[in-house]
Amino acid sequence: MSGETGTERAPLDYTRVDVDLVRTMQPARRLYYGALVFLAAVAAWGAYAWSVQLRRGLGVAGISWPVGWGFYITLFVFWVGIAHSGTLISAVLFLFRVRWRSSIYRSAEAVTVFAVMTAGLFPLIHLGRPWVAYWLMPYPQMGGLFPNFRSPLVWDVFAVSTYLTVSALFFFTGMVPDLAIVRDRTIGWRSKFYGFLAQGWQGTNMQWKHYTAAYVFLAGLATPLVISVHSIVSWDFAMSILPGWHTAIFPPYFVAGAIHSGLAMVMLLVIPMRRIFNLKPYITAEHLASMAKMLIFTGLVLGFAYGIEFFIAWYSNNPFERELFFYRAFGDYAWALWLLVTCNVLAPALFFFRRVRYSIRWMVGIALLVNVGMFYERFVIIVTSLGRSYDPFTWKVYAPRWPEISILAGSFAWFFLLFMVFAKIFPVVSMWEVKELLPVPRKESSHA
Amino acid sequence: MPDPAGHSVIGFYADLTTLLDALELAKAQGCREVRTISPVPLPEAEQILGGKPSPVRRFALAGGLTGFLVGWALTIGSVEHYPLIVGGKPLVSLTPFGVVAYICTILFGALFTVVGMLINARLPKIQVGRGYDPRLTGNRFGLQVICGQAEVEKIQEKLLGTGAEEVRYVEV
Question: Residue A113 burial by CB count (10 A; 0-12/13-18/19+): exposed, middle or buried?
Answer without folding.
Answer: buried
